[in-house]
Fold these 2 entries.
Entry 1:
Amino acid sequence: MLCCRGSPNKYSRLDAKLEKKIVEVKRCSSGQSSFKSIDSIILKFPQFREELKNIRNVFDQYDEDSNGTIDREELKKCLQKLQLHLTAEEIEDLFHSCDIDGSEGIQFNEFIVLLCLIYLLKEPPSTHTTSKIDSPQLEATFDTVIEVFSFLDKNGDGKLNKTEVVKALNEASPREKSPAHVSRNRFKEMDWDKNGRVTFRQFLFAFIDWVGIETDDETSQEQS
């Protein structure tokens, strides 16, 4: 996992917007979730992995110089193609918030996070359209990832704390609780700035690692 995460307060405004959207999503769903336990989420990891890897086709299409990253101009073309209309300021804010290694280019795992953030922040479609972005399959994948976060967000405030994560890990099987060090490690993987709170953006990067996107890519490179 990449270790350079940026200043803790640098993206507080963006993270606050994400919290608000998560709260709205959970309220609209009346707190209902198709996930009943952390095991039910883990069982879907292979499906998550395949669905998220499908985004690679979009990434490769707009990585015009094939250098493994998407720069600002390439990103603008991609967003236009997906009919995601953002201001220059919004694009810049999202670009920096997802460029966690400061390379001035969006790598594949960062690209997944960026698209999911845009999807969450985008206003609902008008009555003339049924899709937020021009990819129903991608929407369904992001909706499920958001649902995973909502499952962990027990108090519905749009962010995670250690108590919520521990509760979620042990909720379905109170007699077979996860070892304390496992719960601590899972939370630490999300809580980059060690402030005891995990934003949706932080969760996304950890979740991608958990389902094994980077591992699969590295394996493919080794075999080629």
Note: The two ends are 22 Å apart (CA to CA).
Entry 2:
Amino acid sequence: MKKFAALLIIALVAILVLVALTNPEVLGKAWLYVLGFIGYVVVLVENGFKKIAGAFSGPKEKIPDVLPSLPVEKGNYSKEIEQKNQEVLSLQQKIKELEIKLKNSETESGSHLGKCTLTVLRYIDDGETTLGLIFLRNKFFAYTLEDTHRDEKIKEKTRIPAGIYNIGYSPVDPAQSRITRDYLKLYSPWFTKHLHLQNVPGFEGIYIHVGNSHDNTAGCLLIADGVLAGTQQKTLQNSRNAYQRFYKIIAALLDSNEQVNIQILNEDWFDRSKLTSL
């Protein structure tokens, strides 16, 4: 095909030479048309060659501009969703029952379970992590996470004893506390000092603060809006949101000179108070 195109070009050039010899005045304009015609002939020949080659090679599959999406297998999760909803409703109902019983029930000593500003009900200890529920004036507020119970204390790996403790601002100068300086950077202006459990036997610097697992506690109480209890390592979720709400409420009470205390009850409080376990 290329030889054929070359012969056409030679023939056209020969015609042009003859025209130039017989009519030299048209030579000034004719080269523009001839050049354009030669280009058209070359393109035409190339397109023809491609079509002939395509006829022998077979049609090519056209690639779509937009690739089709892969089929997605749709499962029926209605039963799982219904089961989860039932579990949530059941837990909410149990928490409502706990709120009523905390207000009305008494311990063996005759004191009310919900007599303090805050009540923490520990309900499970897997040997590594303790989970609990924290109530603010006998109303469920959030979940808690602590270290496990140990007969002999291991520093930063043991939960504090059950009991009643006053809560105040940490007496430590923020400039001398790395964790307080970090919190000031993250949570100013509403955070000023840590909320400190006072006079805990055998422990110092016990705070209520943000965290997700027992790796973050070092004996302190972590607080959060959600909990994952079915995994190998029990963890909290949405801790920062819960902590901010909690801190603002407790700080307002402390700033108004109201006494704030917390009662922490172990897992056996269900039996002692004749309440139904979760």
Note: The chain has two domains: 2-57, 94-272.
